[in-house]
Amino acid sequence: MAKKVLWMILLIAFSIPAWSQKILSLEDCIEMAQKNNIEIINKNKEIESAESKIGEARSGLYPRIDLIGQYQYYFESPSQLIDASAFGGQKGQYKKLQFSQAQSSSAAFNVQMNLYNQSIFQGLKAANSYLNVANFQYLLAKENLTYNISATYYIIQTYKQNIKMLDDNIKSLSKTAEAMKLMKDNEIVSKNSFKRISISLENLNNEKTNLELNKLEYLNMLKFLLNMEQSALIDIEEINENYNSEITNDNISRTDLKLQNELTKLSEISVEAAKSEYYPSLSLVLGYNLNGNYGEFNPLKTINDEWLSSSYMALKLSVPIFDGLSKYYKVKQKEIDLEINKNNYEMMRKNADKEVADAINGVKSNLNSLENNKRNLRLAEEIYNSSRIEFENGLTSITDLLQSQDELNRARTNYTNAIINLKISELKLKKSTGNLN
Questions:
Q1: Is 65 part of any domain?
Q2: Does residue 7 register a pLDDT over 80?
Q3: Domain of 145?
Q4: Fewer beta carbons within 10 Å, N or C terminal of the chain?
Q5: Is there a domain that residue 212 lies in?
Q6: 392 lies in some domain
Q7: CATH, residue 165
Q8: What is the band of 229 on the pLDDT scale with cuts at 50, 70, 90?
Q9: pLDDT confidence of 103, banded at 50, 70, 90?
Q10: C-alpha closest to that of 418 among 157, 210, 149
Q11: Per-residue exposure over 43-56, b if at least 16 CB sit within 10 Å of its own CB, e if not
Q12: Closest CA to 159 of 215, 198, 209, 83
């Protein structure tokens, strides 16, 4: 039953007409992903957010303007006790008096501007550094996405090529099985010999089924990276067996190192921002006020229909003197964070050198493996063709034929895997040197 279900899945997934499927090149996939991938879209939003931080930090350089209005009505006006002697009364006695009107209205127009505040300038520097961090994070996300898509694409190509070679093996072995059946029916070969080739044919079909399912799994992964619906019908190009036998080591220009360097700069700014709290600040304040009073409830009425106005200018100077060493410990924390970021950069730089060296060795190793597997494939093809001719002429056994068939199958698979391993090692080299895009 389980086997029937597998075949039904494969029938639905792989019996769709070729014209209804979109064939995507690797370049198509990378371009689509960089436009549609959710992580890339979010990183782009983070850049927009960082740009807004710059505007927020710059706002501290502009004046702040406020318009304030207030209406107040006392149901019972406040009173004060006054020494009665002030009004000709007896000393030691107090009289309750009300000095305010029941209704009061006021309006104020205030302007405040920072003339000197070191924290604002440090905040503006930090905001610009945040923008650089967001840009590097965006580029790093694009590089990682390019790597993941390329690696997934190569793996799918491997499955496609292996399936294609299995089809060739199945067709060839099926022809041999048909001939064996005739020979068995005419009692030229034994039933066991025919069973052996039938079992081998069944094993190849099972192997093909597994490869088809694995290919479908990675196609679904590719759709996810491209932010496509899983129901989308796509396929990719056949494997390109051409490869570059020369190892190129471009200059290292890694985005992750640039990002860490920018984070270190941001830590330096954070230290300066913490120290800036020791500096005094100076601001200018301008104000204009209107006040009106009335003895009864009437929001639009004032005494004598008159509003009392006042205006002023003030310079506000704030000089920090002592805060219980709060700023001292804050600076200390920022300096420790700066040392950590410097250490992280040095560690990442050395790791980058190691990754480049490992990637170069990987390319060399896979180049050598590819050449060996290429020679092995030619030899396996020669042996199989010779064994097939000898079997047809009755010069060798079915066991030798099946063995040469298995060896050819392994040689083809190893050759395809070697090509993909080389492409992935070249991909790692590009990523390790920062030249993936």
A1: no
A2: no
A3: 2-36+118-279+326-433
A4: N
A5: yes
A6: yes
A7: 1.20.1600.10
A8: very high
A9: confident
A10: 157
A11: beebbeebeebbee
A12: 215
Which amino acid would we find at residue 80? Q
Quick check: is 385 in a domain? yes
Cα–Cα distance measured from residue 388 to residue 397, given in angstroms and rounded to the nearest whole number: 10
What is the C-alpha separation between 435 and 428, in angstroms, rounded? 10
Output 339 or 413, whichever has higher pLDDT.
339
Structure tokens at 150: 């390329």
Residue 249 has pLDDT above 70, yes or no: no
User: How many domains in the chain?
Assistant: 1
The per-residue pLDDT for range 368-413, each reduced to its tens digit, is 999 999 999 999 999 988 988 887 777 878 788 888 888 988 998 8
Query: What pTM, to 2 d.p., does this model score?
Result: 0.81
Q: Which residues, at least 6 apart from 76, have a Cβ–Cβ distance to it below 8 Å?
A: none
